[in-house]
């Protein structure tokens, strides 16, 4: 804004210098009445000043419009980023809810069909045993490589051993989680059985009391 004022003052000064030179020349030549020419020049100077002010005002308005556009653009970008994050959060919550619903549904199906649950348990147990056997075979192969080969073979065997240990750790974690799940299922079945026996006992007591009466 200060630059615009400086420009305005500078250009106005240049106009005044030019007008004063023209005025001085005309007066010296005595071709026009000095009072008339001075009045006309002052009038033209005032017009040019007004024109310059209008141009400065237009430039200022354009600058404000550009600033508003930029601000609106930034606000739109922030809102879109927030909206995208909100959508992702909602989708993640829906995915977790769906996974929980599927897990609950599977648990209810296993509760209704104990034989199916037992078959699934046998299948998982067999898979765990196969993994253990495979891990044991890999371990024996690594030991052979370690003793039969030199430094390169030992390094390779050591890397394989680290990889096997990581796999075993993951398998152990999965086994613990599976065991915890089985315990939850067994506890649920036990509770259902207790409720069933309790209901049967209540029904028998009711029939006995009714018959006695």
Can you characterise this structure?
- 96% of the residues lie in helices and 0% in strands.
- It is an all-alpha fold and 213 residues long.
- It has two domains: 2-76; 118-212.
- Helix 1 packs antiparallel against helix 2, helix 2 (34-112) packs across helix 3 (114-148) and helix 3 (114-148) packs antiparallel against helix 4.
- The model is unreliable at 1-5, 7-13 and 208-213 (pLDDT under 50).
Total count of domains: 2
What pattern of helices and strands is seen along the backbone? HHHH
Mean pLDDT: 71
Summing up helix and strand content along with how strands pair, one would put the structural category as: mainly alpha
What is the number of strand segments? Answer: 0
* Tally of individual helices: 4
Could you state the oligomeric state of the chains shown?
single chain
The fraction of residues assigned to DSSP E strands is under 5%
Strand count, sense and barrel status of the largest sheet are:
none
Q: Nearest-angstrom radius of gyration? A: 47 Å
Helix content: over 70%
Low-confidence stretches: 1-5, 7-13, 208-213
Distance between the termini: 106 Å
**Overall form:** elongated
């Amino acid at each position: 804004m200060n630059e615009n004022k400086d420009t305005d003052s500078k250009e106005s000064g240049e106009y005044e210098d030019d007008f004063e030179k023209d005025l001085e020349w005309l007066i010296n030549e005595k071709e026009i009445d000095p009072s008339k020419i001075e009045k006309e020049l002052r009038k033209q100077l005032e017009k040019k000043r007004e024109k310059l002010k209008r141009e400065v005002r237009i430039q200022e308005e354009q600058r404000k419009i550009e600033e508003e556009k930029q601000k609106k653009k930034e606000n739109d970008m922030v809102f879109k980023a927030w909206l995208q994050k909100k959508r992702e959060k909602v989708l993640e919550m829906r995915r977790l809810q769906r996974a929980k619903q599927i897990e609950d549904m599977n648990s209810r199906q296993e509760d209704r069909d104990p034989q199916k649950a037992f078959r699934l348990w046998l299948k998982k147990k067999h898979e765990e045993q196969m993994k253990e056997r495979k891990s044991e075979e890999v371990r024996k192969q690594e030991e052979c490589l370690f003793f039969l080969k030199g430094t390169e073979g030992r390094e390779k065997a050591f890397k394989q051993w680290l990889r096997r240990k990581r796999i075993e750790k993951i398998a152990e974690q999965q086994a613990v989680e599976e065991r915890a799940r089985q315990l939850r299922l067994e506890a649920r079945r036990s509770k259902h059985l207790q409720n069933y026996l309790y209901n049967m006992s209540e029904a028998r007591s009711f029939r006995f009391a009714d018959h006695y009466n």
